[in-house]
Amino acid sequence: MFNEGKDMTPDVLIKILGDYHHIAVVGLSAKPHRPSRDVSAYMQEAGYAIIPINPLYAGQQILGQRVYATLADAAAAGEQIEIVNVFRRPEQTPPFADEAAGVGAKALWLQLGIANEETKRRAQATGLLYVENRCIKVEHARLFGGLSLI
């Protein structure tokens, strides 16, 4: 059962999406039909800088941006990382809490359908703002883009 995000108040979501504009997307796919690509393209169009993280495509480009194998590689190349948006299976997410904190990120966001208690514990222990089981695109549209969920 996924955490329904009761501790992820609109104020926290507004802070993350309003204050931070550099998003490292872990698991960003080069395939146009993949959710990671659609979500990232939307966020890029909304004015956010996208930093693709995917070892399968390292050194290539996705959405016109250089792809890095790891968060540490992106940070070492001078990329500013504020939000780490993760498109990976839940059991693969705990290390990303430590890595996000290690590169100076402010928030760790696990996409819709992704939740992990260990990841949450690690993220909160390092002081990261934490969101799980929510789509960053949907939340942005709802809070800033006029999406009506009537």
TrEMBL record:
Highest taxon above the source species: Bacteria
Domain CoA-binding: 17-114
Matches recorded under InterPro entries: CoA-bd, NAD(P)-bd_dom_sf
Transmembrane residue ranges: none
SUPFAM superfamilies xref list: NAD(P)-binding Rossmann-fold domains
Protein name: CoA-binding protein
